[in-house]
Amino acid sequence: MSWTLAITGKGGVGKSTLAAMAVRWLGEHGRGPVLAVDADPNTCLDALLGVKAHHTVGSVREDAKKIAQGGIGKQELLDLKIQESLIESDQFDLIAMGRSEGPGCYCYANNVLRGVLGRLAERYPTVVIDNEAGLENLSRRTVQVADVLVFVTDPSFRGLTTARRLYELALEMGITAGRMGVVLNRARDTECVDRARAVFAGTPVEVLGALPENSELGQRDEAGDPILGLPANNPVYVALNELMKRCVESAKVTVGAV
Ligand SMILES: Nc1ncnc2c1ncn2[C@@H]1O[C@H](COP(=O)(O)OP(=O)(O)OP(=O)(O)O)[C@@H](O)[C@H]1O
Ligand SMILES: [Mg+2]
Q1: Which of 26, 109, 146, 213 pairs with 250 at a CA distance of 20 to 30 A?
Q2: Number of H helices, E strands in the chain
Q3: Is 205 in the pocket of ligand 1 (CB under 6 A)?
Q4: Nearest atom in ligand 1 to 217's CA
């Protein structure tokens, strides 16, 4: 049984940055092998992790659609094609969902794919999912989306109230997770943690912690340098340590269960 961390939030708040750092941290702390899932159609987690996703699941979705139309369940073929889209590295494996090609209804194809991806994920003790902004791809799930669902936000009051609205929307949509937490990214002070506690008071959302504003992250992003190369003493990565420890608390991880 995999332990899954899913990351969501509004646009540009640092979801992919957090996902890439979490993949690295989990690998370094004996939770690997980690499956990184780039669920954003605008694939970008690969660059942050320093690999290139040449194939995405998008093209496999076309095959799943054809199979659905022909009424034949060639699950093995899909398993094989998903395997071809998988990028394997020493520290992690990555699968990029991409976008579906062409018009039409992909509901059945997406259902078939979910089964195939579920089987893939089961082979890893740890899965990290970087979602597109908003809740759309989480809402397509019929079961619990993750062991820990993290809402990333900037630390401003406005950012926090938007994150709270996203949480309420998630509840309305029936999205469930083992635990829910909020991460304050690009923090400039420590008061933001108290602000977040006040905004999320009365909800089960835990304030997992704050990551500081750090110019090195922006510079690396501009230069196209992967997060995996970030020095371990970078203040954001140091702050991530406490936050991730809180995240994996009560994690149902069976190390080595591949
Ligand atoms: N703590 C930080 N300090 C400084 N810059 C940061 C920090 N976190 C993220 N950034 C920068 O913010 C920008 C957006 O980050 P990122 O791409 O991770 O956001 P996102 O939420 O995944 O965006 P999208 O909604 O487009 O997927 C990047 O340039 C990244 O380097
Ligand atoms: Mg992103």
Answers
A1: 213
A2: 10, 8
A3: no
A4: 31
> Domain coordinates of the chain in residue numbers?
3-248
With beta carbons less than 8 A apart as the criterion, state whether 129 and 117 touch: no
- Assigned token pair, 124: 């890893």
- Look at residue 127 and give its three-state secondary structure: strand
Q: Identify the burial level of 231 via C-beta atoms within 10 angstroms of its C-beta, where 0-12 means exposed, 13-18 middle and 19 or more buried.
A: exposed
Whole-model pTM: value is 0.91
Determine the average pLDDT of the residues in 213-218: 96
- Cα 5 to ligand 2 centroid, rounded to whole Å: 15
The atom number, within ligand 1, closest to the CA of 215 reads: 4
CA of 34 to the centre of ligand 1 (A): 22
Task: Answer whether 214 contacts ligand 1 (Cβ < 6 A).
Answer: yes
Atom of ligand 1 nearest to the CA of 42: 27
- Which residues does 179 contact at the CB level (< 8 Å), separation at least 6? 147, 148, 149, 204, 206, 250
Instruction: Give the residue from 170, 180, 97 showing the smallest Cα distance to 139.
Output: 170
Interatomic CA distance for residues 139 and 205, integer angstroms: 18
pLDDT tens per residue, range 230-244? 999 999 999 999 999
DSSP reduced 3-state for 1: coil
Cα within 13 Å of Cα(163), Cβ side: 35
For the chain, the straight-line distance linking the first and the last C-alpha, in angstroms and rounded, comes to 9
Average pLDDT, the chain: 87
Residues near ligand 2 ion, CB 5 Å cutoff: 15-16
Q: Is the C-beta atom of 216 inside 6 A of ligand 1?
A: no
